[in-house]
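Let's practice the habit of predicting before peeking. Look at the sequence and jot down your guess about where helices and strands might fall. Then scroll down.
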Amino acid sequence: MSTRTAEERQREIVRAARRDGSVDVTALAADLGVAKETVRRDLRLLEDHGLLRRTHGGAYPVESAGFETTLAFRATSHVPEKRRIAAAAAELLHDAETVFVDEGFTPQLIAESLPTDRPLTVVSASLPVAGALAEAEQVSVLLLGGRVRAGTLATVDHWTTKMLSGFVIDLAFIGANGISRDHGLTTPDPAVSEVKAQAIRAARRTVFAGVHTKFGAVSFCRFAQVGALEAIVTSTLLPAAEAHRYSLLGPQVIRV
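Done guessing? Here is the structure:
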């Protein structure tokens, strides 16, 4: 039998989830030498503490002040769902001529879905977004300056927010690490939170695009309330009843 204390066991579970992207109840029980019910109890507790989100048969880590996934990792998870969401979000462009595209993999896919056959100015803190659009003839790219964060390849800090504060933008496509009805849109890093908040202040319209696993997740820094959004674009993996609850706070919720 295991000689670990419950606390040590739970720390190990969080470490494994952060290392591998998810954990499985059966495998954890075998690895830790405890009953599946003990693991399930641990997962419930860790979910209550905001460290993990439970799934059928396992759990995955919640991004927090102490843990954030990299862009490289995000480019490998839920990719077909992210592509569908990005294409649907890009369709909300309508007559916008100036657009902010946030950092992150789903916003990067939105950038790649934007029309390149009409004049468009795209403002972004994301190097991959700028790179994706730099060669499109009719698209003018404004890359916000600042300190580049290694994990996400995006700029932050006062240089970034100061430059952004000088713009009036038609439409902002925003990502988040979590969105919840009680806590709004959240992200782990205060510097990133500032850039997102400034983009929303600068924009006439704001659209949040994100996979179903973001819903109900809460990270460290809140940068917007759900009511600040014109639309939420996600997939049909978010239940219709839950989507309706978000729509009651103001935004149109589009599930694809």
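How did you do? The CA atoms of residues 179 and 185 lie 4 Å apart.
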